[in-house]
Structures are given as C-alpha cells and as structure tokens.
Design goal:
140 residues; mainly alpha
Amino acid sequence: MIAAHAPEMDEELLDRITLAAEELLQRQLEYKHLHSVATANEEAATEKILQLELEIEDLEKDVTNDQTELTYLKLKLRILEIQTLPYVPVPEKDSLSRGIKVWKQDWADVENRFRVRWKRKGPQGAKGKQGCTLSAKYGI
C-alpha cells in the first residue's frame, strides 16, 4: 500500500521542494536589491559627511579670520578710548570723531559679512543665529 502511494508522495515532495527553491531564489533577489539600495545610501551618506567636513573647515577658517579682525577692532577701540582721556587736546577731537566713525563702519562691515555668510549657508547654517548681531552681543 505504501509502495502504491510512493510515486504520488514523490511527486508532491518534488513539487514542494521546487516551490521552496523558487521562493528562496525570490528572497535572494530581494536581499540583493536591498543590499544594493543600502550600499547606495551608505555611499551617499559618506559623500555628504565629507562635504560637511569641508564646509566645517571653511566655517572654522571664517570664524578664525573674523575673530582676528574683531580683536583688531577691539584694540582700535581701546586706542580711541585712550585718546579721549582728559589730557587730549581739543584740536584732536575732530580726529577722534573721524576715528570713531571709521571704527563703527569697520564694525558694521564685519557684521554684514557675518550676515552674508549665515544667509549663504541657508537655514541649517543659521540655526540659532537669526536676529543675532555683533552690536547686540557686544553692546556696540
């Protein structure tokens, strides 16, 4: 009796194995596709990281240059303050006024460069910077 059902069982078993093999092949194709998508995403992320690192370097250079310029302007202001001491002769007051005007213009130029850079970098580069000015920060 078992021998009589053997060909049917063999055929059914063969059909099940064939179906399982086809399903495994389909899963393999799906995993290859997912792997290629993940690899492409990883490469794009790596490229973005490198781009952001270069941008950070540029911003750090900008900040260093701006800090140097601000230090220069602070020293210039200190010189102007010293010149206003009581022993400064009256005729030099005009020179002092011109110096103060020039200093204020220099300060405004630095602020404008900060604003331009923040606008150039877009919203992500200006986070927390909206409305922030050097004048407000330093009381000038």
